[in-house]
Write a sequence for this structure.
């Protein structure tokens, strides 16, 4: 079990160039989908984990990683792993800030998330005007990992990244 | 090859494949944009999950079959999904009732599968249950909204529940492969979930001001590959590409 990502420091600059194809402002390191990256002789071993089982971005991410490492002169071996299952806790602080600036509200803690998604409490912050007077439009949004909200003050619709624990 | 394990995997995966295909039919046809997106999102989750099961099944058979061959190239009698999931999208009431009756079971099943002795199965369950917890929340919520909604919505969701109820008992039937896998500590003993299932489903229906059907006779057959008349149409669409262009790949 790898709870904390085990990544060789020298490989970070290369991985940092690969962004999430669905949320291009986030790198795959910010997303926390890279769980392992080690250089053994001339071969880089990488383990990635999907955010959601059906995430169509995984194949693209694997391709992008291969391309990035080829450019840097390495061969890679990529494994898709399921355990431990990805959680929104693995999104980095920088990632959360980037999400918000991009117009996607970052995930709340599990309990607060439930209240927000059941429409019991207005606690999701509008990414446009900062108001908390927002309402749930749909528990499912533009991708599996997001829900759709709307701000009642500025009327802006926005995505909320659902908490996954 | 471990035939029991292979059949056990199909028993889990086929349910989600066929339900996912049914939900996929709603893409662009949902009653509202939000429900359209929600139902196809659920479909995507289910397809993602079945890929893990079929990839594992391909490993278990160990010949030249891959996840696509197993998912796409079997004849109807070899699909072992329950009859519930192949029932048509008659109206939104049926879509929600079918989803709810399956989601509650699916969530309970995955909860137990997480402690399977088979590490791969436990891993898939741990991943999937996070997604399925959203599905069950969505469908339960809609059961209440429709049941406790207008006169028309109440009537329609009650009709759907009455019609689909006959397919619920089959969820708890056990095949030979199921029994073997339970004995080995790999499979989930679904007979232990039955009482809890009906209790929970009834609670939600009551809250939705709906009547819990009182039925003595239940339909079965899907787990033995004997399907309703709807299955052939689903497979015709599901298998079209693979049959029209053999050995195609993306």
């Amino acid at each position: 079990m790898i709870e904390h990502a085990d990544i060789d420091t020298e490989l970070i600059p290369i991985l940092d160039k690969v962004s999430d194809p669905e949320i291009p402002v986030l790198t795959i390191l910010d997303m926390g989908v890279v769980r392992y990256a080690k250089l053994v002789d001339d071969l880089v071993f990488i383990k990635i984990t999907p955010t959601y089982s059906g995430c169509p971005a995984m194949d693209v991410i694997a391709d992008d990683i291969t391309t990035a490492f080829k450019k840097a002169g390495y061969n890679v071996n990529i494994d898709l792993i399921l355990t431990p299952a990805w959680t929104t806790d693995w999104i980095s602080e920088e990632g959360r800030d980037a999400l918000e600036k991009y117009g996607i509200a970052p995930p709340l803690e599990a309990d607060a998330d439930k209240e927000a998604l059941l429409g019991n409490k207005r606690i999701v912050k509008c990414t446009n005007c900062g108001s908390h007077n927002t309402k749930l439009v749909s528990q499912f949004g533009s991708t599996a990992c997001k829900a759709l909200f709307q701000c009642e003050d500025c009327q802006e619709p926005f995505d909320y990244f659902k908490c996954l624990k | 090859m471990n035939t029991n394990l292979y059949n056990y995997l199909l028993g889990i995966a086929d349910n989600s494949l066929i339900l996912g295909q049914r939900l996929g039919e709603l893409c662009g046809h949902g009653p509202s944009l939000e429900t359209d997106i929600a139902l196809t999102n659920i479909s995507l989750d289910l397809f993602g999950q079945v890929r893990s099961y079929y990839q594992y099944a391909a490993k278990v058979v160990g010949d030249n079959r891959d996840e696509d061959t197993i998912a796409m190239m079997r004849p109807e009698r070899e699909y072992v999904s329950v009859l519930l999931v192949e029932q048509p999208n008659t109206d939104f009431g049926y879509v929600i009732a079918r989803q709810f009756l399956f989601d509650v079971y699916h969530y309970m099943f995955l909860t137990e599968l997480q402690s399977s002795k088979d590490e791969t199965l436990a891993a898939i369950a741990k991943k999937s249950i996070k997604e399925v917890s959203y599905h069950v929340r969505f469908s339960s919520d809609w059961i209440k909204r429709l049941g406790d909604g207008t006169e028309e919505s109440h009537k329609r969701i009650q009709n759907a529940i009455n019609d689909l109820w006959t397919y619920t008992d089959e969820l708890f039937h056990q095949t030979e492969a199921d029994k073997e896998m339970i004995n080995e500590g790999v499979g989930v003993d679904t007979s232990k979930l039955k009482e809890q299932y009906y209790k929970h489903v009834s609670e939600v229906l009551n809250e939705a001001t709906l009547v819990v059907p009182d039925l003595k006779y239940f339909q079965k057959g899907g787990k033995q590959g004997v399907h309703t008349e709807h299955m052939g149409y689903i497979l015709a669409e599901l298998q079209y590409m693979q049959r029209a262009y053999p050995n195609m790949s993306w």
Summary: Chain B has eleven helices and no strands. Residues 33-61 of chain B form the longest helix (29 residues). The radius of gyration of chain B is 18 Å.
